[in-house]
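S.,

Sequence below, as promised.
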Amino acid sequence: MRHLFCGLSLAFTLVGAAPQAPAVAQDYPIDPPGGGEAERRLPPIGIVAPDLLAEQAPPLVTPLAILDRLVVPGTRMQLEWRPAGGISNAEIPSPVIVARGALPGPVLCLTAGVHGDEINGVETVRRLAHSVDPTRLSGTVIGVPIVNVFGYSRGSRYLPDRRDLNRYFPGSPRGSIASRIAWSFFQDIVRHCDMLVDFHTGSFERSNLPQVRADLTRPEVLEFSRGFGDTVVLHSPGNRGMLRVAATAAGIPAVTFEAGAPQRLEPAEIAESVAAIERLMVKLGMVEAPEAPEGVGVVEPALLADEPEPAPIFLDSRWVRVNSAGMLISEVALGQRVLAGQRLGRVIDPVANTERYLLAPVAGRVIGMALNQVVLPGYAAFHLGTETSEQQAVQEAVTPSNGDPIGEDPEDRPEPADPQDGEDYE
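The prediction came back faster than expected:
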């Protein structure tokens, strides 16, 4: 018996002393029992297969590098921009609000204050840039409410040297002060944009109906202009040196958004401008269309529609000019539809005690008009637009008529030529 126990003890000792193979851990069998790809088993609950994870992973959104800072996705940051070269060391910096969306999408730039006295756009851009929610935004919004801080701080349209900044883009690093500021802004801000909206108002005591001005001969700009809902769209190729013209030439579709008059804040025009950009962001897929809250009034239908109705396009526009000096008193309102021959206003000569009437040469809608003021002969008083279809608008944009050029507000106070400006001067 003792020999039996000794044998068993020796056997257990030999088994325990045998080398142990390393254990291999796995969450589920690599080759399921039964074999064959047809019987491939799904992973246990709570574990996602690597191939399924790769298919469902959303595109990566990286931080945006701008003005020597990094704006991480899902955040908003207010930066400061100054022209390079110490041009504006004594001036306040231009605020640049960057809302970097948590989801991928386009970079939409909103600029205002290129003319320092046009402040409706300043408030529009400020409101939009600070109200968008970056955690629910697809893409990025870059808002620059005041580009021309020189003019804004003085309540002036111009730069300190009386140059119009919106005639010098994209600028030059070795040109005039206007050209250098334009160059710095274009390189530091505009180059980051995928599309751009530049806000303006009427010039020199004129007011404009909220409207988009775009070069409809450019397919990318035409497509961009369709996103503003029921806002008026007016074909205008623009002038050399304008921000939107330079941006479009650089491959960045851009338009001008005109609304209201200079040197004043107009709540109705600002609200309409904000609503138009919100419709644009829905069209671009940057934000979701708002839903009508239960038990509350009706939300604007254009905001709820998947595809907003095509905007009316006013192409055949013309200015009605004053033929005599005196005091202009308007008899129509901005946005009003008029008939051919209808009286638009009158010019009173207080010295001769005479009145002369201004008549509409064509039927249309008042999309711009001068405020009541003292005028001289030739002053552009009323801007009339004739509604047409998009197809007709594009066709006439490609083959314009020989009449007066359509587009920007007339500048009745031209700046003197400076031979040193070279290619920067228009």
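The chain has two domains: 64-289+305-311, 318-385.

Coffee later?
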